[in-house]
Specification:
The chain is an alpha/beta fold and 155 residues long. 45% of the residues lie in helices and 16% in strands. The protein contains five helices and five strands, in the order H-E-H-E-H-H-E-H-E-E.
Length: 155
């Protein structure tokens, strides 16, 4: 009897311990959407356009409209995946890049928000912003007053 209870407890513990890893794996395989307010005058972007915006090379969309890039927290996994997919560089390289630009006064990085929900809420209220979220966070952008300009495949 004790042996059966012990086996059952081990199986329950193994199931509980593996759940976070399964969730992390499914999140790690999510596409990343580049999103703006539906009122923004743009219909699509290239990865080069997005890279230029998020690396401070431009503050304008290709049509000339001024736009402000918003970012996820520094330690965010989605932020690391976004920059890796966009630039091929590790997040430590991106952080060093921004440190150099800040030190020399050439540019400042995108504003960091608290999470994907904060990014979505900010975009809903401001056509002058651009952000990125995991596709799973935004199943129906149109119903939220947002539009997707680019989908970056999961890295």
């Amino acid at each position: 009897m004790k042996k059966n209870i012990l086996i059952h407890l081990v199986m329950v513990a193994a199931t509980l311990l593996s759940a976070p890893f399964a969730l992390a794996q499914s999140t790690a395989n999510a596409n990343i959407l580049i999103v703006v307010n539906a009122k923004t005058n743009a219909s699509s972007l290239t990865t080069r356009d997005v890279s230029d915006l998020y690396l401070g090379r431009t503050r304008n969309l290709p049509n000339g409209q001024s736009i402000v890039a918003i970012d996820h927290p520094s330690a965010s996994a989605v932020r690391a995946r976004f920059y890796k997919a966009l630039t091929g560089k590790a997040i430590t390289d991106i952080n060093a890049y921004w440190a150099r630009l800040l030190f020399t006064g050439q540019s400042s990085p995108p504003q960091h928000l608290s999470d994907g929900e904060a990014v979505i809420e900010s975009l809903k209220g401001n056509p002058g912003l651009i952000g990125y979220v995991e596709q799973s966070q935004l199943p129906n952008p149109d119903s939220m007053g947002l539009k997707v300009l680019l989908t970056i495949p999961a890295p």
